[in-house]
Amino acid sequence: AEPSPGITDDTIKIGVTGPLTGPVAVVGGVAEGIRARVEQANGEGGVKMGDGKTRKIELVIEDDGLDPQRTLANVRKMVEKDKVFALVGTAATPNNLAIGRYISQKKVPNVFMYSGVVALNAPEWEVGFVPSFSTEADAFAEYLKINRPDARVAFLYLNTETGQTFMTAFDGAIEGTAIRVLERQPVTSQDPTVETQLNTLKASGADTLVIIAAPRQGGEAIRFQSESGWKPLTLVTNLSSAYPVLQSVGLENAKGIITSDFLKPIVSDQKSGDEGVDRYLDAIKSANVNFVFANTIGQTGYAIGDALIQSLEKLKQPTREELMKVVHNMDGWKNPLFFDGISMNTKEGSDIYPVEALQLYQFDGQKYIPIGGVLEFEGTTHE
Amino acid sequence: MNDSSIEEVRPVLQARDVSVQFGGVKALTDVSLFVRPGEICGLIGPNGAGKSTFLNAATRLVNYATGSIMLDGQPLEGVETRDMIGRGVARTFQNLGIYASMTVLENVMLGAHHRLGGSFAKAIFAPLRARALERSNREKAMAVLEEVGMANLAARAAGSLAYPLQKRMEIARALAAEPKILLLDEPAGGLTHGEVHEFGALVDGIRRRRNLSILLIEHHMGLVMSLCDRIVVFHLGRNLAEGTPAEIKSNDAVIAAYLGKAA
Amino acid sequence: MTLLDIRDLSVFYGKTQALFDCSFSVGEGEFVALLGSNGAGKTTLLRAVSGLLPFKGSVFYAGKALDKISAQTRLALGVAHIPQGRGTFTEFTVEENLSLGATIVASRSQVREDKERWYETFPRLRERRNQLAGNLSGGEQQMLAVARALMSRPKLLMCDEPSLGLAPSITQEILAIFKSLNKENGMTLLVVEQNVDITLQYADRAFVIEAGQIVASGTASDLIGNEDIKKSYLGVAG
Amino acid sequence: MRDLSLSTAIKLSLFAIVAASISVFAPAYALQQVAIAIAYAIAILGLNLLMGYAGQICLAQGTLFGVGAYVTAILNATYGVSPLATLPVAAAVSAAVGLLIGLPALRLQGLQLAIVTFGIAAAFPQLLLKLGSLTGGVSGLPVDAPETPGFMTDVPELWLYLIALACAGIGALLVSRVLFGDAGRALRAQRDNPQIAQALGVNLTRTRLWAFATSSALAGLGGGVFAIVSGFISPESFLAILSINIVIGSIVGGVTSMAGAFVGGLFMVFVPSWASDINLSLGNLIYGLALILIMMVARNGITGFIEKWISMIFRRAAG
Amino acid sequence: MSLFFQLVTSGLATGAIYAALALALVLIFRATNVVNFGQGEMATFSAYCTWQLMQWGVPLWLAVLASLVGAFAIGIVTFRLIIRPMMDAPVEATVVITLGILVLFQAACMWIWGAEQLSFPSLFPGGGFGIGEVRVLASAVGTLAILLAIALAMGFIFRFTKLGLSMRAAAFDRTRSVLVGVDVERMLMLGWGFASVIGALAAILIAPRLFLSPTMMTPILFYALAAATLGGWDSPLGAIVGGLAVGVTESLGASYLPFVGADMRIAVPIALTLIILLVKPVGLFGSYKVTKL
Ligand SMILES: Nc1ncnc2c1ncn2[C@@H]1O[C@H](COP(=O)(O)OP(=O)(O)OP(=O)(O)O)[C@@H](O)[C@H]1O
Ligand SMILES: Nc1ncnc2c1ncn2[C@@H]1O[C@H](COP(=O)(O)OP(=O)(O)OP(=O)(O)O)[C@@H](O)[C@H]1O
Ligand SMILES: CC(C)C[C@H](N)C(=O)O
Ligand SMILES: [Mg+2]
Ligand SMILES: [Mg+2]
Question: Does the keyword section mention Metal-binding (chain B) (predicted)?
């Protein structure tokens, strides 16, 4: 077949857009993580692709400040001017929604989006990456059903699709159990503080606090539950349970919180003997990334970069259609940063969510300790 | 005050027992004053006597606590500031009320605003009519500038004029409003002696041509005495005296309070 | 002894020249009037001397060349300027205005003393001491401007049209105050005025400025008698 | 007078040349960007009237822009109205909302008004989320592309660009009608000194409300165009920062200049991304420096700066 | 009922955060007639400097002291380089310039220290104490006490000292100030320096609550502006009262007004500000400007 735009015999051009600046610049870590993995691969000579040719990846990174309008502008420029082969790791839901129509029109793959929301609008040309928030909700519900079957839950939720998706799924999962939700309070990423919401949640008499919020507010909530004399069982979304967040809160304040993740916990920048983690540490060091090693967003970026490279290795023909075929038919792909037992699986036509398993962790004041086994939700991602 | 004189012709402007207070400061206490049609009435008094405040009250820029002010026999209570000019009261300001960044012509054209209405609706939906009005307004404004001898300065920025010319431009703007009565607050400020004479002639000419009533506040005694038909004197926010220039000039109370020894 | 010596002073507003090579001097302890019609350049001259405008030529004050000296320093050297249009701090109280007038005065007791003195002179200001200057009547503000300038106890007081907006009796009073400061404290005065007749009653000497140039000068008594000059430059009819 | 119409003619033809060459030389993706810049420019035109001439600082112009965008999107996505037909409605609804926002302006001035309106801008995205059933919440709303005339189906962006340009033309006409006449004078008069203006018979209430309404109508029109050109809108596009950016665009372009509105719109769209093109990690540093340096060099905005130079050159040539 | 008191208490704590930035805004406004939108970001930069010094092993108090001195220098340099050349530029230009300062300092922090939030040590003992069921944070009490002291000192200096009078005069009118011998540039420079110090102190006080990050001040900006407006832009004490009023009403409104809720709580300070301004357009403690006709 005719090669698609953006690919030559020795290079392939890939576009990344994300918020490198602005209030959620932490999410820019995705782009940085991808860059680290790609530079690593290029440094090792390039990617030996399925058609037998070895290509170097040329990354085009653009800053969109999380403004969907700028995301679209960046994508158009990358597609029409820079002629990228595909987009990877596009951050945040509204931004992916904004480019949906355009990428379907132009038939440009938008792979391994950094978005935890299920409903998108160009499924043929997209594939997700991180587990949906509904998956995380299921995992939390699962934990409660076993460990606190009569939990009285208070929700602090991000007032976007993120929080909505999470709560809808959670409500569905606890149906028919003795678990009750007593109070829900929204937060926005613009809220200066969330004391008010937390006070109201505390006053509800709940014994379980579920935190679905961006790092700043999530961190504040973690601190609150330890400071306020309220000692609920605290479940925190992985959006705001990364080690650096806990550091900012004070590790002792985070003791006992429970979170779920598909990544291995990394709490030290020293070689651990785990090959995947060690290669990651090398990569981010030589790429001189702007996040710290323990940042899960950066790790996710690196994992996305690795997934990209794996898909290219399997690309038999240098076309965009072929790429979509590959990423829509993943069967148990491994990833260096994934927790053992979690892999990527998709099925063309029915399942575009590569990661649908989570591991629960509890923080012991120093590090995350896995609790229970991997929770598998393969093929069950729902609204 | 002098009731018999009021009977003769109805005054254009008549104030009775007007008091104005700013917080604890009593700026005016029960002052009365009237201006007959076609008359130039002088209003003098020491600094802080309340002259400007009276003008502000008469144009409804400040509220008066008691008393009444009537225009053509109509009470002004409840009339909005912005409607005063439409009722025929135009004024100048002691501390200059000019628009420094606009041209002289624009300033003068603003005088006719109350007649044109300056409505956005008209400008947007009836642009041709708005443009025609604008043209005729400009011509009239030029004519007024001609009348005060400032036509050659029409395109200058008002702020760049010398102080006395700015004051004169304010008069032109007031005239563009085609008022019945003109209230002038120290219009001759900054003029030299000779210029004051010339200025007096200008004001008198305007009054005659347009058959205007004028209330004139000035500290320039030569001008006031030569120009005014009648003079009212305020002191400490009250009426002190009233009379013809000759009477005022020789009024001991006025000399003591205001004129000083060598008037 | 000459206190203020102005030589070939030229001032430009952008490209337009307002003063052309003006030269004159004011002796210490003199009361000098600067006369001239509108737009002659009187204000410009004062602004140049007090440091509000840059100039060409030279201005010496007590033997010092002023061109490199900042406005603050000029004030400290004793040059005070009461600007046209008063320049009071309208959003400050009368009292604060007087305090500001004494910015360069270090001695608190002197400030207190002087305030008392000017309140004595202008009882109106005392009545209004806690009122905002902007709410004063025009003439009251003029009094305040004068009192404020005197708070720094200047050696050379330049006053731009003090009579503007003042009642005749107050004009006389202020000129009389100037005169007595001049006589008793030896303060040098340079007063710009339109009100020629009254000014010449108090001044020792006068210069006439016209279209940016000094066109005449003389003692006050000379000028009062000189109908020619009065007619052609000062517009005083008969 | 003749001078004035001559310079207007020169400006207009210059504008036409620029507009035409953009449509010829700009690649499709850039053309769409330019169309978005023009949508912002329409809102800036309104803000210039309000801020530059009426002297009222409104930090909610982005909100009114958003109202317009949502009116267009809702009418189109929910009720199937053809996109272009929604534009007058978008302008009208925004005008009405603008009147409401303008009410406090009758009593508040300057800084105080700026801050109250800024608050409204900050609350707007939350309100959009709260009214999710109407606005589509965080997922936003799609907008149909307007039907492209046959001969340009290859470059639908060109059609979008022309639509934006036409709307901007209407906006500019509207503003010029208001500004160059008695209404405009009254507007400036109440800005420079409201008390004197009142004494001259200016109805402050009416003048200010009209200024708000006109400005908001233009914001709404711009927003509608924005929705059409983007094809998709969501609350994230109308955060408080948008209102700030519109104000920046207005000032950088020149608050009292109509051409400045276009400069400002282009500035808003292109300069931040150029800055990050220069160096990805220093993008905002460069942008911040650019803001400061531009204002230091061109304190009356870019058009003010250019006009100063042009008139200087003319004067040189003449004298 | 205990929820009510808890909401009031934590509203006060949050209000103290708003008041801190508002105080710096009011100071610079009073001293230079400029609303410095970048004040918060300049302050964040100083807080990062403190953090950095501590990373290098400097003890907290010394680090704070050093950064406050540094903040003074930053204020002065900003004035010299950016503001002084623009002293007689139109106000719009200044608005963009201060927004430029905001962007610049935020970008600088992000470039040097990254986007991640960091923990910042509190000047006060951690935790708090309970009054009945109500929990009071020691840091909130401490912050408020310091702010109050600063506001009173500022008010005193502005009103009763020669320096304060001169600073106000310089902000009011340059020419007039020059004529009475006020060193205008120096006053404005001091204004920038002091405001920068107060801002830095504010940032150091509130960073422990907000976590240190380049954008920590951004969400506060509107609330601080509202607080300053509510209190009246020329009153330091007003800034504190305004900040606390905003904090408490917002906290109560978010909990007790169901149609507002936590997601629309920003409507509460807007409404409060609007109502107060409609009654008193210059704010609670603001003074009216005068125009004599
Ligand atoms: N807004 C105000 N607040 C407080 N006092 C005021 C206000 N306006 C005027 N006054 C006071 O009222 C008195 C009268 O002032 P007004 O301006 O009417 O005097 P005037 O007769 O015009 O004096 P002048 O000849 O000096 O202009 C003055 O003592 C002044 O201080
Ligand atoms: N800021 C300025 N810009 C340009 N030209 C100016 C400026 N100020 C004054 N001029 C011009 O300089 C000349 C001298 O003005 P100046 O104010 O010194 O005159 P004056 O003698 O004080 O007049 P008046 O009696 O009206 O106060 C005038 O022609 C005036 O137009
Ligand atoms: C924190 C946010 C950037 C996450 C975003 N709401 C998402 O959909 O992934
Ligand atoms: Mg008066
Ligand atoms: Mg003068």
Answer: no
Q: Tokens 């709490």 correspond to what residue?
A: A267
Predicted local confidence at residue C12, as pLDDT: 92
The residues, ordered by sequence, that sit 6+ positions from D231 with a Cβ below 8 Å of its Cβ are A101, A102, D142, D143, D144, D145
Nearest to A67 among D32, D236, D283 (CB): D236
In a domain? residue E209: yes
pTM for this prediction: 0.93
**What is the Cα–Cα distance from C159 to C46, expressed in whole angstroms?**
8
Q: According to the model, what pLDDT value does residue D1 have? A: 41
C-beta C33 within 6 A of ligand 1: no
The reply to whether ligand 2 has any atom less than 6 angstroms from the CB of C15 is no
**Which CATH entry fits the domain spanning B97-178: 3.40.640.10, 3.40.50.300, 3.60.140.10, 1.20.1600.10?**
3.40.50.300
Between strands A110-111 and A86-88, the pairing is parallel
Residue C32 near residue C46 (C-beta atoms within 8 A): no
Q: How far away, in angstroms, is E164 Cα from ligand 5 center?
A: 32
Give domain status of residue E242, yes or no: no
On whether residue C173 sits in a domain, the answer given is yes
Structural contact between residues D202 and D12, judged by C-beta atoms closer than 8 angstroms: no
Query: Would the pLDDT of B156 be above 50?
Result: yes
Q: Which chains touch B (3 or more CB pairs under 8 A)?
A: C, D, E
Under a CB-based contact definition with an 8 Å cutoff, are residues A88 and A72 in contact?
Answer: no
The pLDDT of D279-288, averaged and rounded, is 89
Partner residue facing D104 (CB), from E233, E278, E293: E278
Tokens of A285: 């060091």
Query: Within an 8 Å CB–CB cutoff, is residue D304 touching chain A?
Result: no
According to the model, what pLDDT value does residue E148 have?
96
pLDDT band at A233 (very low <50, low <70, confident <90, very high): very high
Backbone angles phi, psi at D144, to 5 degrees: -65, 150
Mutate to test the pocket of ligand 2, among C43, C84, C193, C234 (most ligand atoms within 8 A of CB): C43
Residue span of the structural domain in which E80 resides: 2-217
- Rounded CA-CA distance D201/B179 in Å is 12
Q: Ligand 2 atom closest to Cα of B163?
A: 26
CATH 3.40.50.300 intervals, chain B = 1-88+180-263, 97-178
Q: Which ligand is nearest to the CA of B192?
A: 2
Q: Give the torsion through C-alpha atoms of D245, D251, D257, D260, to 10 deg.
A: -50
For ligand 1, atom 24: residue with the closest CA: B47
Distance to chain E for C50, nearest Cα, Å: 8
- Is some CB atom of chain E closer than 8 A to the CB atom of D308? no
| Ligand 3 closest atom vs CA A189 | 1
SS3 content of chain D, % helix, strand, coil (to 5): 85, 0, 15
Residues within 8 A of C (CB atoms), B 35-54 only: 45-53
Predicted confidence at residue E292, as pLDDT, reads: 66
Answer yes or no: is pLDDT of B228 > 90: yes
Nearest to E248 by CA among E231, E232, E274, E272: E272
Q: Which of A51, A67, A65 is nearest to A4 (CA)?
A: A51
- Report the residue of chain E nearest B93, measured CA to CA: E293
Q: Is A250 at the interface with chain E, CB within 8 A? A: yes
Q: Output the CATH code of domain B1-88+180-263.
A: 3.40.50.300
Q: Which of residues 50-109 of E touch B (CB under 8 A)?
A: none
Q: Which two tokens stand for residue E103?
A: 């962007």
Q: Is the pLDDT of residue C238 over 50?
A: no
Q: C137 and B47 in contact by Cβ < 8 A? A: yes
List the single range of A185-189, C37-41, C46-50 with lowest mean pLDDT. Answer: C37-41
Say if ligand 2 is within 6 A of residue C84 CB. yes
Q: What ipTM was estimated for this complex?
A: 0.92
